[in-house]
Amino acid sequence: MIIPKAVFFDMDGVLYDSMPNHELSWQKAFAAHGVGFDAVEAYINEGRTARGTIDTIFLKRLGRRATDAEVESIYRTKTALMSQCPAAPAMPAMQPFVAFLRTRGIAIVVVTGSRQPSLIDKLSRDYGVDSQHIVSGADVVHGKPDPEPYLTALGRVGMDAGECAVVENAPLGVRSAKAAGLFTVAVNTGKLPDRYLLDEHCDALFAGTEPMCKAWKEIIDRKH
Ligand code: CA
After folding, report:
1. What string of DSSP letters covers 105-158?
2. Residues 123 and 188 placed together within one structural domain of the fold
3. I need a surface site. Which of 76, 187, 196, 200 has the fewest CB within 10 A?
4. Angle between helices 94-103 and 119-127 in degrees, nearest 10
5. ω before 147 within 30° of 0 (cis)?
6. Residue 184 domain boundaries
7. How remote is the CA of residue 47 from the centroid of ligand 1, in Å?
8. Is 157 within a domain?
9. Residue 168 confidence (pLDDT) above 70
10. pTM
């Protein structure tokens, strides 16, 4: 673990326990269109744009890409289902950890593929993050696993990759962060075996957010 000047946090599965909602909504949205979807695929494809996820599932199940109309229809269904899900709670230990990092002068940026309009209000309320410190799906041309989202975050803080660290829970998120040259901490909060994260060459791996926060806080405290 390192002592960074900025930490870039992924959102779903890192700041919020929201992946069960995504998993269920994707499953029901594909089923409504007669396309199969395993729960585990929500985690394997986590971080992709909606189009990327839908195309990946279509290629696997039907041997072709989805049409624009199919993408729009499935995504509309998924969004409607998500809005019916219960609000996702913050992940354990994350709110006090983010507050702790701020007391040590460490900058916080949230890097997510999500484009939910309520994103800014939610992150401001729960984590004290303003819009300048959010890189959303609307801010990039190429989403994860492309490095663009994390390179954009580096631009926001005006720092070099060696000064910053990332917290990710998804294999494609780790791939994106590593491609941007960043020290990447993985937390396995989903349903995939550890090897999915290790195969993407994360620099550290924890079984959840609580042990990650505890270990990192101890290291930072020792230095200050
Ligand atoms: Ca995630």
Report:
1. T-EEEEE-S---TTHHHHHHHHH---GGGEE-GGG-SS-TTSSHHHHHHHHHHT
2. yes
3. 76
4. 70
5. no
6. 6-18+89-223
7. 6
8. yes
9. yes
10. 0.93
Last residue of a domain, one of 29, 58, 83: 83
Which whole number is the average pLDDT over 36-61? 92
Residues, CB-to-ion distance under 5 Å, ligand 1: 10, 12-13, 169-170
Q: Computed over its alpha carbons, how large is the radius of gyration of the chain? A: 17
- Tell me, in angstroms, the distance from the centre of ligand 1 to residue 215's CA: 21
DSSP letter (8 states) at residue 12:
B
Identify whether residues 216 and 156 lie together within a single domain. yes
How far lies 135's CA from each of 66, 86, 113, in Å?
A: 27, 24, 8
Domain's final residue, options 83, 104, 129 = 83
- 224 CA → ligand 1 middle, Å: 30
- Residue 190, Cα to own-chain centre: how many angstroms? 11
User: Do 180 and 69 belong to one domain?
Assistant: no
The DSSP result for 53-76, as a single string, is HHHHHHHHHHSSPPPHHHHHHHHH
Whether residue 119 is predicted with pLDDT greater than 90 in this model: the reply is no
| Partners of 10 in the β-ladder | none
Q: Which two tokens stand for residue 21?
A: 């909602």
In a domain, 158, yes or no: yes
